[in-house]
Amino acid sequence: MALIEWLNAVSSRMGEVLLAPVAWLPLWLSLVMVSIITGILMILSFKYTSNQRAIQKARCQIKASLLALSLFKDEIGVGLRSQGCLLVNAGRLLLCSLVPIAVMLLPMTLLLSQLALWYQSRPALPGESVVLTVQLASDVAMQEMDVELRSDSEIEVIAGPVRVAPERKVYWSIAARSEGSRNLVFQCDEYKCEKQFVASHKPAIVSMKRPGSSLVDLLLHPYERPFKKGQQIEWIEIDYPQRETWFAGSHTWLIFWFLISLLAALATKPWLDVHI
Length: 276
Fold this sequence. Notes:
The protein is of the alpha+beta class. 47% of the residues lie in helices and 20% in strands. The protein has a five-stranded antiparallel β-sheet with strand order 3-4-1-8-7, with no helix packed on it. It has a three-stranded antiparallel β-sheet with strand order 2-5-6, with no helix packed on it. A hairpin with a 4-residue loop joins β3 and β4. α2 crosses α4.
């Protein structure tokens, strides 16, 4: 977990610099550019982390087997041997792909979690209310827990706190009076913690959740430091509005990124002399 937390911190700082143009470009254009660059980097990574000779040899064997099947249709023995050769070399291609996939798995996970900060949800608009949720730790008694949201003059608390004892959650409805990134401060008895809140008309980094210590939370929400086990709060989440565009919607941006990246990788494969 400590390693993932460190990788998140490094990738978040790099993402702030490398993805800064997203805030100034049209959202669709920035996503297309990021997808094309990603596709080219993936195909280059595949080239230099895979056994290109073995892949090329397996593909030649597959072509030879297909040719033998077409030329010797009436020869049962030749057909069976060719089909067996097809299966063997298809398995070899799969094995040759495992190393590049393993090499790219963690970097791509970190990259997608950074892209989600820009394309998954949009910042709240000034005056737009959002729901803020605090999840308390399982060993904290609700009746003994006094959770106080300390907001500055630019944050309006519309409703709350609303406690749901069975779920061990506390809810607020809040809105920003002006644009900007602010830290919401929570006082829990003697324990104090913060959560980022962003309001803007322009694209900006949106950290929906300050995560807990679970691996899934750490990978999906990398921007803010996670809560540790044993702390009084498990996680804090803001229900930011979802993007609704066809290319960068909350449920479509990943598909759009995948398709453009795939097309970019396939288009540059012959120029880069990559066998897959």
